[in-house]
Amino acid sequence: MTIEVQTISPATTVRDAARVMADQDIGALPVVEGKRIVGMLTDRDIAVRAAAVALGSDTPVSEIMTRDVQCCQSVEELDHALDEMGEQKVRRMPVLSKEGEMVGMLSLADIVCIDDDFRSIGRALRDICTPHGVHSQAARTRPDID
Fold first, then answer.
1. Which terminus of the chain has fewer Cβ atoms in its 10 Å neighbourhood, N or C?
2. Each residue of 81-106: pLDDT tens digit?
3. What is the 3-state secondary structure of 71-97?
4. Are 94 and 105 in contact (CB under 8 A)?
């Protein structure tokens, strides 16, 4: 788990968020208010929900972020978190304390470094990469997609 996680606020502009991603070579930013996670912004969100529909770069990330963020608990078993990542098709998952505050970020790369059960990692990766129809982000930005 990564403990020192770069975060942004809901008012951060798409431009500023993209700069942070480029400067830090990361593809996702948790959106927080205080220590509470209120969304997740990925480079794909910027491409599909902002650039593809010509939203201005001054648009606040709150307009394009994913609000229903899948999280795991700091006391959760690694296998359970990995299964959840596969089921939800996410490569990274915020880690929350018992109080619901964000305390870190768990990524597939973190798991590869600490777990030598490559079969479970392989299953999760297969689940994440398996196509599942029209991407939910596209459906959110294109009214012609049901």
1. C
2. 888 888 888 889 999 999 999 999 99
3. CEECCCCHHHHHHHHHHHCCCEEEEEC
4. yes
CA distance 138 to 142: 6
The pLDDT, as a whole number, for residue 10 is 98
Portion of the chain with pLDDT greater than 70, in percent: 80
Q: How far is CA 132 from CA 12, 34, 105, in A?
A: 31, 34, 25
Instruction: Name residue, tokens 């959840």.
Output: 84
CA 56 to chain centre: 22
d(CA 140, CA 87): 20
Confidence tier at 76 by pLDDT (50, 70, 90): confident
CA torsion through residues 12, 37, 23, 84, sign:
negative
Q: What is the DSSP-derived secondary structure letter of residue 144?
A: T
* Domains of the chain and any CATH numbers: 1-69 (3.10.580.10), 70-130 (3.10.580.10)
